[in-house]
Amino acid sequence: MNQLFTQREGHGPTNGTTTSIAEGVSQAVHNNPTLYEQLLSNPLFTGGFGLACIGAVVRYGSVGVRSAASLLRERILVNMEVQRNDASFPWFLEWITQHHATRQQNGAGGWMERLAPRLHHLQAHTRMDAMGDPSGKKKVVFSLLPGLGRSFLYFRGAWIAVTRERVGRAFDSNGVPFESIRFTTLYRHRFVLDDMFREAHLRASRVVEGKMVVYTSTSAMGWAVDGPPMPRKPFDSVVLARNKAEFILNDVKGFLSERQLYLNRGIRYTRGYLLHGPPGTGKTSYVEALAGALEYNIAMLSLSQRGLTDDRLKLLLRNLPADTIVLLEDADAAFNNRRQADGDGYAGANVTFSGLLNALDGVGVGEGRIVFMTTNFIDRLDPGLVRPGRVDKVIELGNVDTDQAARLWERYYGEKDVDGKMKDEFVQRLADLDLLGSVSPAQIQGLYLDNKYNPRGAIEMVETLKKSR
C-alpha cells in the first residue's frame, strides 16, 4: 500500500501498477458475487423457476387453446336446445326413436353411421289404450324413448349430435325433472334443424289426426295433455232440443270467420257461452261433440279445483294451446266460495268473482279464445257474469221433450224399428207416465244401454225411470 501511495505522489502509476489494480478488482468481484449470480448458481432456485415458467406456459397456453376451441366451435357449429316445458319436446323424443328404428330397419347409412354411438340409454313410456281391444280389455302400449346421454344421428346429409341432459336435481311443482334436448351440427348444415322440426311436427300431427286432445291444468301454471288422444265424438251423438245444437255450432263458426271484423271495430276477439240445466242434460258432452265438429281440442278446468287462484286462472286462459276450446265446469263454484268466505272463512278454492271476471275480459285476454262454462245452478251466478263480452250466449239444456225422445230412439233403434211404430209407443209411454220434461237424456240413454238389442225391452222398462227421478 505504501508503494501504491508513493507511486501516486510521483509522476503516475506505471503499467505494472495498472495491471495489479485490475487483477485486484477482478478477484474482489469473484470473491463477492452479486445476488443475481448467486441465484443463478443455486440449483434449487433454477429448478423451481423453470418449473414455474413451464406451469405458467401450460396454464395460459391451455386457456388460450380452450378459448380458441370455443371460438372455433361458435364459428363452425350451431346448437338448438329444446326445454321439457316446450310443446315440441315429446315430438322430438318420438321422432328420434322412430328415425333410428327406420334407418336401422332399412339398413341405411354407411360404415361411419354404423360405428357412431347409437341409442344405448333408453327410457320406457307406458300408457293404456283408452279404446282397448274387441274383447273389452285395455291394451298396454309402450314405447322406448331416448334416455339421458349423447347419441348421433344422420339426417339429410348432416351429422347431428343429440344430447339429452337433466339440470341437476331440480324438479318442477309436479315432480317432473327439468330436462332439455340439445342438437348440435355444423353451421353449414343449420337448415336441417328446420327440416327436422317440421318432420317431427308432421309425425306428431299424424298421431292425433282425427282425434281430440284433452288438456288439464297443472300446478306449474300451464297445460298438460291428459291421457292419449281420443276419437272425436260425432256431432249428432248428442241430441239437444230442436235446433239448439246447430244454433251453437253456426254461432261458433261465424265467430271464427269474423276475426278481421272484430279487429277493425276494436272489439275484443273472444266468445263466451254458458250452458245451464239439470245434471245429465248433455252440457259437457255437447262441448266434446262441438270440438269434434270444429276439429278443436278441449282444455278442461274446474273453478273448484284445489289450488286454483285468480292469477293462475288468468295465466291459464291467456296461454291456451292452439285450436282449443276452454271448458270451465262448475261456474257457480267461485260464487259459492265468495258467499261462504264472507260468512265463515271458506278455505276451499280461491277463485273470486272479480278474479273470474278479469280472467274473462281483463287486460291481456288471449285472442280468438272460445270459453264454454257449465253450471247446474244458474241462480247462483252473479248477474255481472252474463253480460256480453264475458258470456255472449246463455243456453238452457233441459230435460227430454217429445222431439228429443223420438230422436234418441231413432239413433239407437232406427235400424230395428224401420216403420217407427215402437218409437211412437215409447214416446207415448213417457207421456202417459208424465216423464217428458222430468227425465234427462242421460237417463234415457241408460235405459237404451240396458236394452242394446231389445227395443221392446226398453219400452217395458220405461216405468223404472219414474222410480229413479
Automatic annotation (TrEMBL):
Which part of the chain is the AAA+ ATPase domain?
269-401
Species annotation: Piedraia hortae CBS 480.64
Which stretches make up the BCS1 N-terminal domain? Answer: 49-238
Q: Which domain of life is it from?
A: Eukaryota
Matches recorded under PANTHER family: BCS1 AAA-TYPE ATPASE (PTHR23070)
Family listed = Belongs to the AAA ATPase family. BCS1 subfamily.
Q: Which of UniProt's keywords are assigned here? A: ATP-binding, Hydrolase, Membrane, Mitochondrion, Mitochondrion inner membrane, Nucleotide-binding, Transmembrane, Transmembrane helix
InterPro entries, per the entry: AAA+_ATPase, AAA_lid_BCS1, ATPase_AAA_core, BCS1_N, Mitochondrial_chaperone_BCS1, P-loop_NTPase
SUPFAM superfamilies associated with the record: P-loop containing nucleoside triphosphate hydrolases
Subcellular localization: Mitochondrion inner membrane
Q: Which GO terms describe its cellular component?
A: mitochondrial inner membrane
Name the Gene3D superfamilies on file: P-loop containing nucleotide triphosphate hydrolases
Q: Which reaction does it catalyse?
A: ATP + H2O = ADP + phosphate + H(+)
The segments labelled Disordered in the record are 1-20
Molecular function in Gene Ontology:
ATP binding; ATP hydrolysis activity
Q: What is this protein called?
A: P-loop containing nucleoside triphosphate hydrolase protein
How would you describe this protein's topology in the membrane? Single-pass membrane protein
